[in-house]
């Protein structure tokens, strides 16, 4: 990540689980709308099954009318790392992804997908088109 500039910095907040400062780094896709749309604080509104997300992503890809972008979130401080790990553990232990509740103008849906350092990127998101 040292060679990349972050595209957004703000809070991720899931009440009763964690709130922390995070930076978003580009991985794949076009980020113009995302950087315009993301608020100062991303509110996580709930959980969703991976199966539901991947069915939706496949429909989006097949339509050819919408874009999918992928970012990597990284906590800013050591204290943020602890809260980040709590949120990661929360979703991983339930085998669920996070659903962002903010209403945005250009970005229709935003999911938080917990991937461990040794996890493979879900095949639905590759090949990457961007800095990777």
Record keyword descriptors for this entry:
PHF3 protein; 132 residues; single chain; 6-stranded mixed sheet; SPOC_C; Ku70, Chain: A, Domain 2; alpha+beta
- How many domains? The number is 1
**CATH topology group:** Ku70, Chain: A, Domain 2
How far apart are the termini?
A: 10 Å
Helix/sheet category: alpha+beta
Gyration radius over CA? 14 Å
Give average pLDDT, whole number. Answer: 92
Broad shape = globular
CATH architecture: Beta Barrel
- Largest sheet, strands/sense/barrel: 6 strands, mixed
Could you name the CATH class?
Answer: Mainly Beta
| Sequence of strands across the biggest β-sheet | 4-2-1-3-5-6
SSE order: EEHEHEHEE
Proportion of residues in helical segments = 25-40%
Low-confidence stretches: none
Domain Spen paralogue and orthologue SPOC C-terminal: 3-122
InterPro entries: SPOC_C (IPR012921)
Protein name: PHF3 protein
Task: Describe the protein.
This protein has helices spanning 32-37, 50-63, 78-94, and strands at 8-14, 18-28, 41-48, 70-75, 97-100, 111-112. The chain is an alpha+beta fold. The protein has one domain (8-125): Ku70, Chain: A, Domain 2. Strands 4-2-1-3-5-6 form a 6-stranded mixed β-sheet. The chain is globular.
